[in-house]
Design goal:
Layout: H1 8-24, H2 31-34, E1 49-57, H3 62-79, E2 82-87, E3 96-103, H4 106-118, H5 120-132, E4 135-143
Antiparallel strand pairs: 1-3, 1-4, 2-3
Helix pairs in contact: 3-5
């Protein structure tokens, strides 16, 4: 079986999905992750990074992957990550899911990874996914948002347009 690699289009689609979900829920998408006062300059000490995880999953185990993702909803914040969200395939490609987790820095990510290794529930969740063979492939990328372009709401359109 040939596996696809992450493309710029897939990455943009995943980030767009995060914004769409938040907008549908009537809240600013991930605003708290990258928020800073207007005009304030970002320096290395303030930089936020998002771990963008692309999963190739067994499409016949979509609901089991949902449980796996829901488990991370408890584990990730407890271990120091800011969970942006997990996203399941809905329409189109049926075997690609996404997970986004934000951190203050790459050093904070490394500390989080160390805490995960010591967390019993995290180890159980990894073991469950491995035993059930939910995840066929996993890729990680680390991204920073361009603050001036992130989470800009759509303008209201008049009724006559």
């Amino acid at each position: 079986m040939k596996t696809s690699t992450i493309t710029r289009r897939n990455a943009i689609a995943g980030l767009t999905a995060a914004g769409v979900v938040a907008a549908a829920e009537g809240r600013p998408a991930m605003e708290q992750v990258w928020a800073r006062p207007r005009g304030e300059q970002r320096n290395e000490g303030q930089m936020k990074v998002t771990c963008f995880i692309r999963y190739q999953i067994d499409p016949f185990q979509r609901e089991a992957f949902r449980t796996y993702a829901e488990n991370w909803g408890r584990i990730i914040p407890r271990c120091g990550g800011q969970l942006v969200g997990y996203f399941l395939p809905d329409e189109g490609t049926n075997d690609v899911a996404w997970g986004l987790i934000a951190f203050e820095s790459l050093a904070a990510y490394e500390a989080y990874r160390a805490r995960l290794k010591g967390d019993a529930e995290a180890r159980e969740n990894f073991a469950m996914a491995e035993k059930m063979r939910l995840i066929l492939r996993e890729e990680r990328s680390f991204l920073t948002a361009v603050a001036e372009t992130f989470c800009i709401r759509a303008e209201s359109m008049g009724r006559d347009q």
